[in-house]
Amino acid sequence: MSVSGAVRAATTLALWSAAWQGGASPDDVLQAIDGADHRAGVRAATDEIAVMTGLPGPGSPTAGSAALLPLLRDAGEAQLLLPYPGDLRGLPTSGELTVTALDAGAAVTLTGPSLAVVPVNGHWRVFANSARHPADDLAQAHDRLDDEVARATRSLTALDVARQSDGARERVRQLILADAVSTPPDMPRPASALLATSISLQALLTVADSHDTATVTSYQMAAVDDALRPLAIAIREARRAAVAAGVRGLGRRSTGAPRGLGRSL
Q1: Residue 213 φ then ψ, to 5°
Q2: To bridge 76 with a disulfide, which of 17, 49, 111, 216 should be the other Cys (CB 3.0-4.6 Å)?
Q3: What's the pLDDT tens digit per position in 212-231?
Q4: By the 8 A CB rule, do 141 and 46 touch?
Q5: How far apart are CA 74 and CA 45, in angstroms?
Q6: What confidence score (pLDDT) does residue 1 get?
Q7: How confident is the model at residue 254 (pLDDT cuts 50, 70, 90)?
Q8: What CA–CA distances, in Å, run from 218 to 100, 168, 211?
Q9: Which helix (H) or strand (E) holds 193?
């Protein structure tokens, strides 16, 4: 599974963990989790975690996605982590969890039982993790994102490489659709809006980062990379802030009759 697919899956898990705690139906929760292309089940990363959680351990067949529900019910506040080389906040400084989360590009920390769930090749792997990395609030994330979008736009315009072909625009559209997240219907509107913005900007960034612009020289390509790197970080932090705000809002809600899925983009 691609890094973008793992990020989508982890985003979905974090939000629906909160919705489950807030009263969402198990069918809706499982439909959303399985819809994130992780139908291969769940397994504990170590024998100790297997004993603690009741999940199958290393070498055992995975349990179905429903095995996540008891774990998520008492999971406390879920934190989305989007690690990359140079930023391991929220993870141990070394070890199997850190390597696995870096490879995936995403993980979800369950702060109640001090566990982390990582999307790995179509299934979920559960680790011990006591580290924490709180996200920015929505206002901070918005301000940072606005600043970096403006800075990147100025840099690309100055380089005269901001043009995109029809093919690039179609690629952006495809990426947005592929990365859309099924959000709980009670997702707070400001959080949902920021998540949608981060998905759209990530699609633009992915296309620009492939140098599908008007770049010609190696100097221009390097300059584009330099201009986009801070924006990539701001987009990651915006997604984390959107999920954190969503988790807080969803965890405080209760539901009556089962409801359908929402959609962020």
Answers
A1: -130, -160
A2: 111
A3: 555 556 666 676 677 788 99
A4: no
A5: 19
A6: 47
A7: very low
A8: 33, 20, 11
A9: helix 189-209
Contact between 79 and 72 (Cβ < 8 Å):
no
Q: Are 119 and 104 in contact (CB under 8 A)?
A: yes
DSSP 136: P
Residue 154 sits at φ, ψ, to 5 deg, of -60, -40
pTM comes to: 0.88
Query: CA–CA separation, 53 vs 46, rounded Å?
Result: 11
Q: Do residues 192 and 136 touch, judged by C-beta distance below 8 A?
A: no
Q: Sheet holding 115-120: strands in order across?
A: 42-44, 123-128, 115-120, 107-110, 78-81
| Type of residue numbered 207 | V
Exposure letters 164-180 (e unless 16+ CB within 10 A, then b): beeebeebbeebbeebe
Which candidate, 41, 68, 49, places its Cα nearest to that of 129?
A: 49
Which residues lie below 8 Å from residue 219, measured CB to CB, with a gap of 6+?
A: none
Tokens standing for residue 191? 């959080």
